[in-house]
Amino acid sequence: ESTKIQYKAEARFLRAWYYAMMLRHYGGVPLLGDTIYEVADDMKTKRDTYADCVKYIVDECELAAKDLPVVFSGMNNGRATAGACKGLISRIRLYEASKLFNGSDFGTSTNCPKELIGHPNYDKERWKTAMDAARAVINLGTYNLFIRSKDLNGKAEPGFGFYVVFQAGDTRNANLTDDDGKNNNGAFAGNILDRKYQRESGHEAAYYPPSGSHSGTRHGGYIYKELADAFPMIDGKPIDNSQYTFDPLNPAQNRDPRFNNTVIYDGALVPADDTYSATTVVNTWIGVGQTSDAVYQGTATGFYVRKGCDRLCKGSTWNPSRHNDSLIRYADILLMYAEAANEYHGPDFEETLGGQQLGCYPILKLIRKRAGIEPGADGMYGLKKNMTQKQMRQAIQEERRLEFAFEGHRFFDVRRWMIAPQTESKTMHGIEITRATDGTKTWKEFDVRTHVWRPAMYFFPIPYNETVKSKDLLQNPYYN
Questions:
Q1: What Cα–Cα distance (Å) separates residue 428 from each residue in 25, 160, 221, 248, 424?
Q2: What is the pLDDT of residues 418-432, one digit of tens each?
Q3: Full-prediction pTM beyond 0.90?
Q4: Can you spell out the DSSP letters for 111-166?
């Protein structure tokens, strides 16, 4: 009987999870609940309001959480938990409070009722609700940021704790201690819900340059220069306003360690074989002797993706890695809290929960500390003092961009913040490095692609072959 209760709760969470995915893609969708339709039945096709969908998802998660443990262990590790339920509620509440859904004027000039794609009127209290939802996860006292500044061999490496989050399934990482000498579930410390893989090298095969991928051919995952340049120097300051000198030909030097754990650049090292020790240099330069990894040949931008890849695993390896893709992690909850706190209370709000200091500044500092950024003499980790609410909002938005690059958040973040017309409608760039016969290198920026934004892109269209089946299934704005 207890197993039945657990399975029902897990199914309830999964149903809420997929409704949440549809909600952020389409806005309000038809809520079918527990109704089961036969072939001849007249199935419900009328879309429910955004508010009703939010309530349904939250209620389902709260019911499921009552019958699930905060965490699972052993063979059940990875199943839906009360922590995952509360984490999903936190995300739903943050989206609900965000500009696009909280009383914006988007879509009001169309035939799509505003109630289907958000709340018609702004309510500041939704930020308080979002803050409370994040606080509920924090109050569980189960999760924390895994801060470790040395690698598996004990060699100093600031930001190593950020890297191993995505290889937490490796027993070596799961059993690691943090900088305080505590285990606290090792690299799994901040993973609330993740997609776990059998041993495989798919990430490396898909992202690594041709020289290190599975087939030796071009794949995908090319980083624009705009994102590469957004990572600060190791003092937390922008690359053009730091005590350290930024060198485009050696971009990882004195840099936020998340850069090297996210980006593969000219001169970066990737695994060469299966010995766990040999490495090879990625050469994206063009000129005499250029390789298949060169810009215009292996990469469209001069960069490749490293995020989520195992630095000990080659794309064609016989000794693969145990990856895990984080779907909800504690760093996300903390930044949700910071975002909501800034909007509701302002940038200087702070409180202490369970001995942990929370607030916009404390959370940003903690995230940057785990990343491996230097605290500086002022202990600000490169952050500006006395930021206004707008400046803090921008700081949090930029931190999310870097911390969660290639984890599926940015696409939806810029939409809910309604900054997509600025971030997604411009010419994107790459870097072309040319190597002379004497070995010297020069570089220049080049245009890669011009992106064009239009208002319809805030939501996905309801598929046409579905809308023609029922007059009740209304289309999203700007698609009629």
A1: 25, 30, 15, 17, 9
A2: 999 999 999 999 999
A3: yes
A4: SS-GGGTSBSS--THHHHHHHHHHHHHHTT---------B-TTS-B-TTHHHHHGG
